[in-house]
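# nightly structure sweep
# worker-07 picked up a monomer target from the shared queue
# config: single-sequence mode, recycle default, output format = structure tokens
# input follows
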Amino acid sequence: MPDDRLSRLTLFVGDSVARISSLPRAGHFGVAGIGSAGELLLWNRHPASLWIDIDTEWLAGHMTLFDIETGALDTVASYDHFPSQRSGEESPIIRPMGEVTVAAGRFVYTRSDRPEITWRLSDGTVNQIVRWRPEPNLLAAELLEHGEAYIRVLYRRNRVGSEARREDLIQEAMAQYRAMIGQPVPFFGTPFADADGNVWLPSYRPAYPEEGSPYIVISPDGEWLGQVETPPRFRILDVTGNLLLGVLRDDLDVESVAVYDLTSAQPRLR
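# output follows
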């Protein structure tokens, strides 16, 4: 279990702590997953202040190996992480992102404005690329239905300004969102992998982005396995076998743990 605040990784075996390892504090490192040989696979990104006035179209992130025994770091690849911005320019409220996760011991990279997934071995070698041709993903008004409530939760949690100031900021943000209705938005949200190495691509949504139903599921071999629809207000935490473990949010935003069986909508031959 990674702890970004304390820059450490805790390994649990059963219900006991087996090991606690310190992570590098510099470079904004995050744990992507574990490699096929047991090595730790990290991503690292630059702070937001460096997104302004860079010479390239995208700010780069990096894929890195971390030896928990020696503390050695080895950067094996770079990727497009965040689009650059010029001083004085108003940044759009919806922007694409480059994300890295790990599936079946390999780095998995996506850029949300491209219908493409790239797998890399732990040494950075490109192992597989999958591309597809979806219809343009345009922002629909119904995706903003819970936008105000979601932003209000975020601002309150992060203690942004006074109550009155927060309301002003919320209305400004919603005006920007509404101005983008009918405009192209990312093809998907932040991907994750399940215990079998399948890559899950959540649908893009500006409000409650972790609740990304329906999900596109791609196998470790790059095969399209289908779409998975989950109940409304359900956030997936883990997928193993045919079980979805997650958090269900009620109408009052109270969360409870829930487990669902993954079933096929297609009839099966017996």
